[in-house]
Specification:
484 residues; mainly alpha; 2 domains; two-stranded antiparallel sheet; globular; DUF6698
């Protein structure tokens, strides 16, 4: 499934990585030759081309930004029994650069600590890049790292044999997820592809950059989870006193009846409702005869009014609780209880949708919020990929497979989500139409075509059609004649 246009944003170039023109940078986008092995962190550097003059002495590094444009002095080598060449014959810095090289020498990527405050990031010049990475996290979805998408995902996508073996509609494997993540990353961060030549020569730099991006991504996930920690309970219509009982994270999950029912598998909910306490305690005590695995989709992702026994697509991902949590993350807390107000403005900090100009919903973003909700409802006090027999990565892939396997259901589901979150931005709204049909924009269609404007006299300025003073003194307007 192609990335939705509402999420494709060209993001800035990484700080301190300057690129040459696109035409001069070797790129493998759209080609069949492998490219990922050349940029994998720790990959061996390609063999250097022979220099114009063989260097017998240690080669000094390229000049830094501070020394740019100045002649660097090469220090004398340490004393050795062999004779030292005169300084005039030593290779200069510019002599060590291949004349045929198309990409100039570039500075290493600066170490980017994640803990810097906003003002410090602004001072260092990478606040925009920091914010861009945060959106990449939400676009890729959970349980796939940026580093894996950039390295493994690109490698799989470049191999026709491996791509031919993928069947995402039959089994949505980790390889399918990595390829989708690579395509999304490539669309949102083309600078990573443009810097391929630089990263080939500096594999340690791409490792540093990807490590930083994943650190920012984890921080983003933690902040989004913190937003939903108590709100998910509030939005689930708890009984009086339940909010206080669930204030401690360790008291949630199957330890409390309210959260237990939301987490219980929808396919077994009838059995649970017959004897909630017994089934809840069986799960708490780890009863192996009642396993709850990733494919046991929980009640909170379903609209129970639409769900039918034996029809698992009915009501799937139509939960109003899921919609409210999605809006809380993307369109702001104040919008969670509101009807869609397409052109409404809210005071305070802008939402993600307004900040990044989002107007679409993707499968990855829906499942990302569902994973956050699963963690917020559970009793786990720390983030983890698993909870008993439940696996987060398997949960994500099981839902993504449905979008791949059933395109009609997927299309209808995404249209429904778009309507719930952003409204139908393509269709006319009631304030765009005059019920009496008396708007100028409607009446103009009754005039027929515009053939009357073929007469050049009709294109004269309005002021030329009136005698002096006629417009205000009640004079008769001058009518054009055949002699005009």
């Amino acid at each position: 499934m192609a990335l939705h246009a509402g999420w494709v944003k060209r993001l800035p170039v990484p700080p301190n990585v300057s690129t040459a023109t696109r035409a001069n940078i070797p790129s493998t986008v759209g080609s069949s030759r492998p490219r990922a092995k050349s940029v994998v962190a720790g990959a061996p550097k390609p063999p250097p081309k022979p220099a114009r003059r063989p260097a017998q002495t240690p080669v000094t590094p390229p000049p830094t930004a501070a020394a740019k444009g100045k002649r660097r002095e090469v220090p004398d080598p340490s004393p050795s029994p062999e004779p030292v060449e005169p300084a005039s014959k030593r290779p200069r810095v510019e002599d060590t650069v291949d004349e045929d090289a198309e990409v100039p020498a570039q500075e290493p990527v600066e170490e980017l600590p994640d803990a810097l405050e906003k003002q410090q990031r602004i001072d260092k010049g990478y606040e925009d890049y920091y914010q861009a990475i945060r959106m990449i996290r939400r676009a890729l979805g959970e349980h796939v790292s940026i580093e894996s998408a950039f390295t493994l995902g690109a490698e799989i996508a470049a191999s026709p044999e491996r791509m031919a073996r993928l069947q995402p509609g039959v089994k949505y494997t980790r390889e399918c997820q990595l390829v989708d993540a690579w395509e999304t990353l490539q669309a949102m961060q083309p600078a990573l592809v443009e810097c391929e030549g630089y990263f080939q020569e500096h594999p340690d730099e791409v490792a540093k950059l990807l490590t930083y991006m994943d650190a920012v991504a984890k921080r983003t996930r933690s902040e989004d989870l913190a937003r939903l920690r108590d709100s998910v309970i509030e939005y689930s219509n708890p009984l009086k006193g339940v909010m206080a009982e669930l204030s401690a994270k360790s008291a949630r999950g199957f330890k409390h009846p309210h959260t237990a029912r939301l987490l219980f598998p929808i396919a077994k909910i009838d059995m649970y409702d017959e004897d909630p306490e017994t089934f809840r305690l069986r799960v708490v005590n780890g009863d192996k005869t009642l396993p709850i695995v990733a494919k046991d989709w929980p009640v909170f992702v379903y609209d129970e009014d639409l769900y039918e026994v034996g029809h698992m697509k009915a009501g799937l991902l139509r939960s109003l609780l899921l919609v409210m949590c999605y809006k809380h993350v993307y369109t702001g807390r104040s919008s969670a209880h509101r009807q869609v107000e397409l052109y409404a403005t809210y005071k305070g900090k802008p939402s993600l949708a307004r900040k990044y100009k989002l107007n679409d919903v993707t499968p990855e973003s829906i499942i990302y919020v569902a994973v956050l909700m699963r963690s917020a409802l559970s009793s786990c006090t720390m983030w983890g990929d698993s909870d008993g027999g439940w696996s987060g990565p398997a949960f994500v892939r099981s839902l993504m497979r449905v979008f791949k396997m059933y395109p009609i259901w997927a299309d209808n589901t995404l249209k429904w989500w778009r309507l719930q979150v952003y409204g139908d931005v393509d269709d006319e709204h009631e304030f765009d139409v005059d019920p009496n049909g008396e708007c100028a924009g409607d009446l103009i269609d009754l005039e027929g075509d515009d053939s009357e404007y073929e007469d050049p006299r009709m294109r004269k300025p309005v002021a030329d059609n009136f005698q002096e003073g006629s417009s205000k003194d009640g004079g008769v307007p001058h009518q054009p004649s055949d002699d005009d």
